[in-house]
């Protein structure tokens, strides 16, 4: 067994070696962390990555949690398994950062949040798009009131995924039990999170969902109308059936102007004032598709923040509690689609 070399470092482990590979790469680069172990129920996968990164391989979370040099566990397994693993991790007295969505029901999410809070352990939820430079700039302008009174937003995720994408890895994607939904819960959840982060709490939703182009249980197309508590309205489109894929977009309009992003880069920035055109040109140069800099690796940024949070005994930038809101909106859309009526939030957990 490879023991931690420097006691002041955060000993880290990753479970689930699909998306978990991005967590491994981030941990290798991060300061103040040592990757000690990886875990996957597929023994060959666990051993392959353990050999590659010279760490220990596990196929069982419980075994890995017996180690006293592991301080932080990254949960990157299918979404419907997150809470069951998070509860074991909290019980073992370790911090955790979990992939989005935190889990697929509010009842489980609340149990996970509570388990870490009562033990004074940190729980982070990956929503790396929040940390994109253009997204942060847009959020700051909205919070500063530069768009005036919030009025309208459009959040669109128009992606394409093949049938093979749904069938591979045991076929967990597009199932109610493990994915908790389809294109809204798995893919559009990032943009729905940005929508509510920028526009504020949701009052009600009306939604329609359908399966258009795949053999799956859950939706590959969801459309919703959203009313916010501040009176603003929004539309949501989330699909994995838009062949060959059209990217994501988020537009937000207030009484003093609007900002639009395509694939998390600024395409329009029009705010009332004498310098409107000059400001837009500046924003597009810094945060738009004409900027020269490569896209930021915001998964790394979020994971470095989580390590710093554990070392300094503070909450991470995006906590487990922050991971709850987008899931609640998606669940409300599903309830509306099933019941054929408008659904008010908050939902009963
Ligand atoms: N933040 C993002 O942009 C992003 C991107 C992709 C996936 N994700 C999230 O990451 C999670 C995993 O998705 P994925 O695409 O990597 O799936 P995947 O199927 O590619 O990988 C999941 C891995 O978990 C392993 N696994 C399953 N059950 C296990 C268990 N009980 N114990 C140990 N290992 C187990 C599987 O063997 C597999 O290697 C999901 O919650 C998904 O929503 C997030």
Summary keywords:
349 residues, alpha/beta, Rossmann fold, Dihydrodipicolinate Reductase, domain 2, 2 domains, 6-stranded parallel β-sheet, 11 helices, 36% helix, GFO_IDH_MocA-like_dom, nucleotide binding, Gfo/Idh/MocA_Oxidoreductase
Structural commentary:
- With 349 residues, this protein is α/β, with parallel strands linked by helices.
- It folds into two domains: 10-128 and 300-319, Rossmann fold (3-Layer(aba) Sandwich); 131-293 and 327-344, Dihydrodipicolinate Reductase, domain 2, CATH 3.30.360.10.
- Helices cover 36% and strands 24% of the residues.
- It contains eleven helices and 14 strands.
- The longest helix is centred in the middle third of the chain and has 17 residues, at 183-199.
- The radius of gyration is 21 Å and the shape is globular.
- The structure holds nicotinamide-adenine-dinucleotide.
- Nicotinamide-adenine-dinucleotide binds next to loops.
- This is Gfo/Idh/MocA family oxidoreductase.
């Amino acid at each position: 067994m490879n023991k931690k070399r420097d006691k002041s470092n955060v000993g880290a482990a990753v479970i689930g070696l699909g998306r978990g590979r991005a967590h491994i790469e981030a941990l290798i680069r991060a300061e103040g962390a040592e990757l000690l172990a990886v875990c996957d129920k597929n023994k060959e996968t666990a051993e392959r990555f353990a050999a590659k990164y010279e760490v220990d391989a596990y196929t069982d979370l419980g075994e890995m949690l017996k180690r006293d040099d592991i301080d932080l566990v990254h949960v990157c397994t299918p979404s419907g398994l997150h809470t069951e693993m998070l509860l074991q991790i909290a019980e073992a007295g370790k911090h955790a950062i979990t992939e989005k969505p935190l889990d697929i029901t509010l009842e489980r999410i609340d149990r996970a949040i509570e388990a870490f809070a009562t033990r004074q352990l940190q729980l982070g939820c990956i929503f790396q798009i929040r940390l994109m430079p253009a997204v942060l700039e847009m959020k700051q302008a909205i919070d500063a009131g530069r768009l005036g009174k919030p009025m309208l937003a459009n959040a669109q995720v128009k992606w394409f995924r093949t049938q093979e994408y749904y069938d591979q890895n045991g076929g967990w994607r597009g199932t109610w039990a493990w994915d908790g939904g389809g294109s809204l819960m798995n893919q559009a959840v990032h943009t729905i999170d940005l929508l509510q982060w920028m526009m504020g709490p949701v009052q009600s939703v009306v939604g329609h969902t359908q399966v258009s182009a795949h053999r799956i249980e859950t939706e590959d197309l969801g459309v919703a109308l959203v009313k916010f508590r501040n009176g603003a309205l929004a539309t949501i489109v989330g699909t994995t059936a838009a062949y060959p894929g059209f990217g994501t977009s988020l537009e937000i309009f207030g009484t003093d102007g609007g900002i639009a992003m395509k694939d998390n880069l600024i395409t329009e920035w029009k705010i009332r004032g004498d310098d409107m055109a000059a400001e837009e040109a500046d924003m597009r140069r810094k945060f738009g598709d004409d900027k020269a800099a490569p896209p930021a690796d915001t998964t790394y940024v979020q994971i470095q923040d989580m390590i710093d949070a554990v070392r300094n005994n503070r909450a991470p930038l995006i906590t487990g509690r922050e991971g709850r809101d987008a899931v609640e909106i998606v669940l409300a859309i599903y309830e509306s689609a099933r019941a054929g009526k408008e659904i008010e939030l908050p939902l009963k957990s």
